[in-house]
Design goal:
heterotrimer, A alpha+beta (219), B alpha+beta (799), C alpha+beta (330), A: 219 residues, alpha+beta, Ubiquitin-like (UB roll), 7 helices, C: 330 residues, five-stranded antiparallel sheet
Chain lengths: 219, 799, 330
Amino acid sequence: MNESDRGGAAALTAAAGEEAARYSRREFIKRVIASGAVASAAVYVYGGLQGCGRGPSVAGGVERLISLNVNGEVRRVDVLPQETLAMTLRYKLGLTGTKLGCDRAECGACTVLIDDVAHYSCSTLTHSVRGRKVVTIEGLAGPNGELHPVQQAFVDELAPQCGFCTPGQVMAAVALLRQNPRPTREEARIALSGNLCRCGAYDNYLNAVMRAAAQPSET
Amino acid sequence: MAYKHIGKDFTPHDVVAKVTGQAKYAEDFRAEGMVFCRLLLSPMPHGRVRNIDASEALKMEGVLGILTADDVPAIPAPNAPILTKEPMFVGEPILAVAAVDETTAQDAIEKIKVDIEPLPFTIDPLQSLFPGGPNARSDGNVGNVGIELQTLKWTAADFARAGEGKLPMGKAVEEWSYGDLDAAFAKAKIVYDETFVTASNSHHSMEPRSCMAYWQNGKCFVHASLQSHTYTIPQIAQYLGIDPQDVVLIAEYCGGGFGSKGSAYPSMAIPALMSKKLGRPVMMRISRAEEYFIGSARNGFQGRIRIGFGADGKVLGVDLFIVQDNAANNGFWDFRGAGEAVSLVYTPTAMRFRAVPVYTNLPSRTAQRGPGQNQMACIVEPLLDRAARELGIDRVEIRLRNAPVTGSPVGGERRPVTSAYVREALEKGAARFNWREKLRENGKRDGSKVIGVAVGQAYHPAGFFGFDGLVRITPDGKLHIHTGVGNLGTFSHSATARIAAEVLKVDWENCIVERGDSRRHLPWNIGQFGSNTSYTMSRTNYVAAMDALTKLKEIAARELGGSPDDYDVDGSRVFQKSNPSRGLGYGEAAQRAIDLGGRYSGHELPQDIHPITRASASALAGTGLIGVAKDTLPGGATAAFAVAFAKVEVDLETGQHRILEFLTVGDCGRVIHPMGLATQLKGGSVQGFGLACLEHIVYDPQNGLPANVGLYQAKPPTYLDVPAEMQWDAVDKPDPTSPLGTKGIGEPPMGAAAAALLCAISQALGGHVFNRTPVLPDMIINVAAGRSQSHKPLQVHTQ
Amino acid sequence: MSRDMMPHFELYQPDSLENALDLAKRLGRDGWIIAGGYDSLDWFKDRVKRPKALIDLGGIESLKGIRETPEGLEIGALTTLTEIERSPIVREKYGLLADAARRVASPQIRNAATLGGNLCQDARCWYYRYGVNCYRAGGNTCYADTPQGQNREHCLFGASRCVAVSPSDMGTAAVALDARMVVRNSSGERVIPAEEFFIGPAVDITRMTVLEPGDILTAVRFPAEWAGAKFYFEKVSDREAWDFALVSIASAMILENGVIRNVRMACGAVECVPRRLKVVEQTVTGSEPNEELAQLAGKTAVQGATPLNFNHFKIPLMENLVRRAIRAAA
């Protein structure tokens, strides 16, 4: 698979004479789908009905079949132009640990790491993360399934309540500790301030972040 | 007495799943052939659907079907319908469309033409009570659970008599009183007559109420977001028009409810009914905006309180009148909680309570953490401080002088409460907070910043009785505690399960909590709401465990001789007291129970248990020793309390505040799970800060349109709006009617924290009392700048 | 009412500005330029704005980065707010920008949202965002400016059929720093002073800036004149995260011997554009920044304010923030 990511897309936008190339790529897509190499369950939520040919009103635009690097694995996925990363993760890659609390960048439950930086996956177009490394809550555990130090600290502090915002809180905390392994409580508070918790577990979450930060680790 | 489990921390079984993302909430399930449905919502606040033309939509490729009000069971008015022909608020679901994918479903919705005849509407209860005022419903404007749906208009004279800015008090539809009110006010040194408004605020559960359902072999499988479990099954069955035994409910995790998911709710019937029609699993994802429409909110009040204090600060008389904004349907009876709270927390010698719940064209309401009690904490606590100031009494002292004790009466029925340790909570809190010392900082000004130091308190009932317990010991020696209570995130499903482990003296590693899925055969329990779990389910688990204990001893006596009384248990063994080496392991005893059959194995069951418990116990019969019983222990009116202490810095130039120090103390009976208790005390407090100073529903009165359909508009508190650190404590004194002394706590910390914050702001403003929630920066700026407020005293749903 | 599912659009991800400009020209009004996407996606999810095609600038490296130039500082339009907040050069010489960036929305939004996107964001009037057919949406009424309109967050100045305010924290800072907006289209480049970049409803009620289809904001230049000046930024909002300003203030001041030699001040969320406080600037220039001057500046700033039913608190708030800016220089 040598999908050329952004460059490929841009080339398409520039060139009007690439119809033939696009056609052959479509053929390629069909073959990949037939061989089952594409993430399954692609029909959920977005345009499963129309297959790959759903009417772009303007010629050109991004190629739908793309490679995504998620939790260290490269996955081929058929992605619509308007698809958000949260939906791709949840409905095409089966990674339902990333939660949708608002779908509007207002709560943080969908927080994932993109190149080690915390982002709201609900408001990130999937096409914009090609060539970048995505890590979700499912990608944190160690090789033998042991909890990430942040996760362990969240357990030890009984940090979650209902648990729905928890994956996002964990991801925001991991992003913080990667950038600042020894934050002050105030720094942690600011770093996590893009994650709402309606149960009001903020104090416990902060205690957990500070506990994780106090551990010797290479998070 | 040394306990094995009570009062000790443990790691609940569901917490690891929550931190790893493995916990599955309703929208995380998939089923073969699953399709999606979307809702068409009313664009107007009140209307009558004259015609629906879905022909174009149904012709679209991928569109599978439509569900309208005609296709779903009718819910008796004034309860909220599943789908409606008379939409009564903007955002009320009119129809649902299913398609192979969600975008197609939404595209189809856009192609449907709905002809709606606009009807008069109102978002202000007082407008509806005014002669000739609009009714929110075509069948009336006043009612609630237990109050007949009726049309009630007050007279013009009622309104005129009140005067500008004062709540008119016409005919009430609910009323109680005790004592000689006139005498009480005559004796009072100070009498305040205050008109107040408490805002409606949304629950903002982080998980919107998405739902997935399908049918298999005549049973309907429902994956839903519910804070309760078995309690909701008969309700779901009613929505679907099927037998409760045919509902399989999977609700292992619930992403927040706070009262809004305590009972089944109409929208959850839609995917199930659509699935029945299509023969395919149906997922209905609910968006954040939709959650604001169908996800419910707290009832708002327009109220008036006359409160009289003796020279010693004792509350002598209270005359309370509440106009409750019901929204469009029957939601909850916050007004009742309001009256009861005032009668108990301030123990007035005489009191009259009157209320009128009025329908308005706003999204349905349900209970929200401390429904009624917490609104009143926000209003009465600052008045208490005002009286304390005028009378020269310390603010903790005035609370001590009015505090209820065990046996103090609550409400119009004057039922004595089973326990009340408010004084102890106040004293413990004052000592730990260093109240006297901190008071020296009260009112200190540094530039534009002023310090306010305050205390607040709140109450809620703390548990029910009469539900069922079900435990099971299997031949592998494990104790299974079956609980139908639900999982709101309090971990009390497990904390109360440990009561059974305590009674049967089983190590926690040998316990399995069975919950969250009907297929795990759960008993009839009330839901996880009303701060009740720690009392109600401690009792059910206690009686079931006691039943199992009796059976263990009987089996041992039968096997090893002597009488059951000669036996005791520990370490998963039942043994002779006189010779502990003679005994049976629990696994062996369980096998004997299976062999014995009858009541030991669950083949014979008590007569008084609920049909749902009976079905569950029957399904488990023969798999082990079954302990099952209905809770018939003596109970009473339970009461939980919290007090909160806060030091707050208010910036008079910007209207912003910072909570510098905060302590909350709970009276929750004996503490069973300290870490779990801490989360309830602190989390409730965070919600209290939102209630006090951020959250409210805003509507445009001219168009009936909601201003807050997103979290950024509705503003629940963030990390940066709450104290950087929070302290908690507990009285830890047992409730005498609870087998191991436990009672609930979930709701009062919210009211106590809200009150403490509002009182502290009031202190910083030199004693100014707003008589309104929430208190927003603009209101503080206006007071500090000597300007009038933008809202009129009785105006509701304003910014 | 139909919400929450983005309709189909075509997506372009050009990797050079030239390609983006070509696309922008070709697509014209059918095209919609996105950077971080945090303003745009909401519109699409609400199905209120429905472009046929998106031009995602995220892949254009030349639009990113912070560069010192002989004239001052140039920040690429696609530079994220987090980069601005953390940039040593910005913090050292243009701390006002870092202070403003830090108060935008939430950390995750700042990690993706860009300077250009923040400057170009649309109005946040809740009626307009709800999707009603108001003046700004091309209709013929304003819902906010009615006797019962809920207009706590709306304007004190410059109402002209529309009473929405500028939501951009970076815009307020940019006006105070006399920033220059570098705008490209297929026919060339133009450089526009920040004050002229933002336009009010009297000029064009459907736009917040001078940008027209085909235009791309490529960079913002901050003149050296204000490097290292005495800055003050404060944003008052209901919550400390996410919320838009109720009122904000940005000021840049150069003092000489304890006297204000040069000053620029702007207020956010009081007008449809960041409101430059020219009369305040003239009034305080040449004076010592003391409490008396602060009081005078505050009073001067709110002259002519015309409150709506629910926003008169913005008058004392604006007054107080202006005072604080002066006091901070004392």
